[in-house]
Write a structure and sequence with these properties.
This protein is of the alpha+beta class. The protein is 29% helix and 27% strand. It folds into 3 domains: 79 residues, Rossmann fold (3-Layer(aba) Sandwich), CATH 3.40.50; 66 residues, ATP-grasp fold, A domain (Dna Ligase, domain 1); 197 residues, 2-Layer Sandwich (D-amino Acid Aminotransferase, Chain A, domain 1). It has 12 helices and 17 strands. Helix 1 links the parallel strand 1 and strand 2. The protein is globular. The site of adenosine-5'-triphosphate has 18 residues, from strand 6, strand 12 and strand 14.
């Protein structure tokens, strides 16, 4: 079996690493140069994109922002999983909101902004605490602006003046006073069967994911039902094949969808050590027509992103049940360089491991680690 992944970053790398034991060969497309590359070494391979498409049994994406002509070409091969509609909904927040509304899936109150003058209207109907998101090409909190009060509106309008909102609208969202952020990852196969990972709790800092804990503590049956129902509605609508992630805000006992990722997702990286079958393996299984693997958690897990920093000792590997996954990138501010997975039998054990881990890491880059360890230490 051969799989071609659009995008050649860490997600393609981890899909490739999961595919090898299944006898699946993975190649990647650098969507900037359009070269076919090795997803591990990034070496350019002596194959044209057309040939690589023809030779592959399945095509997939590691991120949603693949140029549309490439996606169209991939889709016309009849081998793109998930399909183009799911990918485009993940890539364009206007489409994403339309799908959520159409399926009556609860999400944050919002307005589509095609001209800055509409921001007054947005404040009138949504309140003055807003988050504005570019409808395309945003990730990790890039392409977002926060309005904390009406007084900031004039300077925000100036900042937005350089954007052509008629071409790329903004979504103005009410700032949701959420209790926490959760995500659900699951896989759907072409027969419409599902496996679900347990919900993960996600801690963000400046719009970027820093820590995930899975299974999320204090999850009620109602939260699981709400999350899986929303997921199923969306995945069935797209006739989705592969792993998908849905991010939620928990407000009281209610879940609101924040966004959909039509791909493997950072908040599922814990599954590499913590679940019976990792999200990467399940994605490969789904898109190549293999049976889906059990997605249950084997342990309690914490996943800690290494962001914008390479100044730590790999002696951290001396910690019991600590695993390092590096992406082979040079360091840049806010760049995801790798992640660390910790597993334990209880949250208290995870908390202890996190506290030990903190001794090996420069804390300025890990602002959520010790607070989260404190919280988990109170649980069983
Ligand atoms: P990523 O690609 O990392 O998931 P992103 O850039 O696509 O991020 P979002 O997930 O929409 O963007 O937002 C990033 C974070 O900003 C959220 O996880 C949340 O912490 C915060 N955020 C986004 N929208 C809202 C909102 N309406 N109310 C409150 N906080 C929000
Ligand atoms: Mg997000």
């Amino acid at each position: 079996m051969k799989v071609l992944v659009y995008g050649s970053g860490q997600l393609a790398q981890m899909m490739c690493l999961a595919a090898v034991p299944l006898g699946i060969q993975v190649r990647a497309v650098d969507v900037t140069t359009r070269n076919v590359v090795d997803p591990i070494s990034k070496e350019v391979l002596d194959t044209s994109l057309d040939d690589a498409i023809n030779e592959s049994d399945a095509l997939t994406v590691e991120f949603e922002h693949v140029p549309e002509d490439l996606l169209e070409q991939a889709s016309s091969s009849g081998k793109l999983y998930p399909g183009i509609d799911a990918i485009l909904a993940g890539a364009d927040r206007v489409r994403e909101k339309q799908v959520l509304e159409e399926l009556a899936v609860k999400n944050s109150d919002h307005l589509i902004i095609t001209d800055v003058s509409q921001l007054h209207e947005a404040i009138d109907s949504l309140g003055e605490k807003l988050i504005l998101k570019a409808s395309r090409d945003g990730y990790d909190g890039y392409g977002q602006w926060r309005l904390k009060s009406k007084n900031e509106l004039a300077s925000l309008c100036q900042e937005l003046a350089c954007l052509d909102l008629s071409k790329v609208p903004l979504i103005a969202e009410k700032m949701v006073p959420f209790d926490r952020e959760l995500s659900l990852l699951g896989a759907r196969n072409s027969q419409g069967e599902f496996v679900f990972y347990p919900l993960a709790e996600n801690l963000h800092h400046q719009g970027q994911l820093h820590v995930s804990v899975a299974p999320a503590p204090q999850v009620t049956g109602s939260l699981i039902v709400q999350a899986q129902s929303a997921f199923k509605l969306l995945a069935d609508k797209f006739e989705y094949v592969g792993v998908m992630a849905v991010e939620f805000f928990q407000v009281g006992d209610e879940l609101l969808v924040n966004e959909i990722a039509p791909r493997v997702h950072n908040s599922g990286h814990w599954s590499m050590q913590g679940a019976d079958t990792s999200q990467f393996e399940n994605h490969m299984r789904a898109i190549t027509g293999l049976p889906l693997g059990n997605a249950n958690a084997k342990y309690k897990s914490a996943m800690i992103n290494i962001i914008g920093c390479d100044d730590y000792s790999t002696d951290l590997l001396s910690i019991n049940r600590c695993h390092l996954h590096l992406y082979g990138k040079s360091v840049r501010p806010k760049r995801k360089m790798g992640h660390i997975n910790l597993t334990g039998e209880s949250y208290a054990e995870i908390a202890e491991l996190m506290t030990t881990l903190a001794k090996y890491l420069p804390m300025a880059y890990f602002p959520k680690l010790l607070d989260e360890a404190d919280k988990l230490s109170e649980l069983n």
